Amino acid sequence: MDQVRIEPTLSPARGLRRFLAKDPSESDLGRRRFRLRPGAPRTVFTDSEQSYVFGFNAVMSREVEKIEDLSPEQRPFGHEGAAAACTVLDLLTLTRGRRLHELLAGPAQHHRHAAYVGAGRGYALLRLRPVWGARRAHPLMRWLAVDGFGFQWSLSRADRMVGRRSMPDLLTRAHCAVFDQGLGRLLWYHDCASPDDVGARIAAFPASRRADLWSGVGFAATYTGGADSDELWWLTEHAGADGFRAHLAQGCAFAVAARLRSGALPDHARLAVPILADAAPDEAAAWTDQALLALGHDAHTHEDFQRWQAHTRRSWNRRHRR
Known about the structure:
Layout: H1 16-20, H2 40-60, H3 75-93, H4 98-105, H5 112-125, H6 144-156, H7 158-163, H8 173-190, H9 195-203, H10 207-223, H11 229-242, H12 245-262, H13 267-276, H14 281-295, H15 302-320
Helix pairs in contact: 2-3, 3-4, 3-5, 5-6, 6-8, 8-10, 9-11, 10-12, 10-13, 11-12, 11-13, 12-13, 12-14, 12-15, 14-15
């Protein structure tokens, strides 16, 4: 796997942006008392967060174009950080999503999934409920901001969100399910891609929350990586025993679709998809596209977002019954 090579070439941020810029050491998940196994998994998660911080600071330094200096595998994480920074600036300056819209229309146009997730992380950084701040944003993909909010909120409060399994008071009921998908992604990081630990962690949550947690785990295991083939097979066993094998596959399908839109498919995703989704990458990605088309042009509500996921799971179920 290629290593991320981030050179300290960003110019110092100035004015308000100087105070908002992130310390690169924030990418060290060990500081947050995450369980970090030595070797590849630790490197994978540190690299992804390092790229996120780089993208965040690139916006603060007005050098967002330098995200292209990241490896193709890490570029989406850079744009996730850029979207978080744009969202923070938009909220603080009351510009109604102008910077985020410009990012989505320009540098992040091939990384829209990562950008919407990053926007949600920006809301969480300011402790604000994720709302639709991006003008002319995709009406359905905006729900991904709640996923990003769930990831960042849980990252900053892992003891409460993971240990005590609490839920933020500022969320509506409609937000909670998508929040748990972001929390599920965070669990994959928190337990360093250990199938046994992730499975045990999810088993401690109420049954009503586990489906979305498994969906988030399936996404992270495919999108970010960190597990070898044996561990991925064992992950499917845990999800199946819990009754949420289809949700793991659906999260995987969403991840591979996002990765393919960003460019070439990383080796870790190419490894994960046949195991987690039991399909070729192109086929699994097509499930999400077909499900989106089935919803029609007016889909925008939380219920529509859930139907998008449910249609994708049905495609997996039909294939699995063959």
